Amino acid sequence: MKLKIIGRIRNFLIATMEALKKPRTNTQIIQQNVLLRFKELNKFLINHAQGIFIEVSNYYCELMCGIYYNIFKLYISEVAKLYEEKIRKNESIIVEDSDSVSKKQSIFDLSARGNILNNINKEPIIYHISLEKKLTHTLEEIFRSQNKLLVDATINEYYFVLEFFNLKQQQCSYIFNAIFKKSVQHFLDSLQNTVNYSFDPLGLLLIIKINEYFKDFMVKNEVPILDFYFDKVDFVLWPKIVQILDNHIVIIKQGTSKGIKPTSTSVIPITKRYVELASSVYKIIQEKPHVMLSMRMTQMKSAIFELLKSMGDKFSSDKLKVLFLLNNLDYICSSFKDLRQEKLTDLISLQKEYNQLAPTYINSLVLQEFKSLLDVVYRYATETGSEGSMKLVEEEKIKGVNKTYLESVGNDFALSWAKKVDGLKQIIYVGITSRSAAKQLFGSLLKDVMNKYLAFGEIVRIGHQDYFKEITTQHVIVDLNARYKSLRSESESAL
Asked: For the whole prediction, is pTM greater than 0.85?
């Protein structure tokens, strides 16, 4: 009688499972509403016929393996037809044709693509709806959708198998592997094939983040059965991401060796494209930086800076070269600051380069209009390096100054400084692309002129006491300081 009961249970369970094979069957409904009603039969088999229990469980695994494999294979094949390639093989940071860039300026910009990280758990893509609406989807959206299906299926199957076969968590791995091994391998093969022909580092990085989310999601749901899959996804993606970035770095270096000549001192398309790519990468990885990735971005930053310097060398004067570098470095630094990553190494490095160039540009402008004043100041004083302040030489040396020349320089400055400063302001505001950067540089110029004139006043005080009384009544410093404070107030209000 026991053997007959075991045989009837075996045949009944297998026959009931056969319902899962019917076309358009909702497997979860069959599992929850039909199979779970007979879970006690499995307990009986475990206690009285373990060999039959293993046979039944193996049959279930084989059955579900084929069902899931066919479902996932079809879905992967369908959504692949909806793929829209965002960044093609020939898309590069290096571009010399401004018109072609303007038509597709945001090729490396993350923009709306980053929103996927806030909507990872939304419903998967429905193929026929996308087809009817003629919708296309990015690499990361297809991955998210496919893996949403995989994760949901494994979680549901995990809890069902535990309950239906009366297993403990540590006993579930064999059955799970038997059910999903073929499907998971197909996911990995499909991903590998896609990655092989992808040149979209942003899409691949977003997949990394999506993969991390699903891995954490499985941990929170206490379903520790896909970790090996998530690890393999990372293993597939990271080498390709590094390879793509390495290729960009090589192309940038090739641009340096080609000797690309800029057409103006404004921000060039190459800089804009670099900022788009770098900013997008930093946005994706800001919460969890990756050492190899950070290293590549630093190498790219260095390559871009060397390229900008080589392009600057093509200008006819050092002043134009510095202006070109200031505009492009300011554009990069301002964009990186918008990421609100103050400790970003690349930002700190480029900001340092900018801060070293800015005084050079200001000094060239001041020298252009106030050469005679600077001749006197630099003869009897040196810059201390502290915000352009000056330190005088020995008083005995100053006392031998040519008094007539001092008066000539001082009177000329008093009569012409305002007009010359206004002229320099115009030069800065026309030459500097960024309005905020132009204001900052003009403020530095005002401060530099004030420091130089204060030093000149000290030289006059020591070397020509009579004339000193005259220049103190000219209110030059008061007027310069008023302009400086007004500019700072205007800049702070804008912030």
From this structure: yes
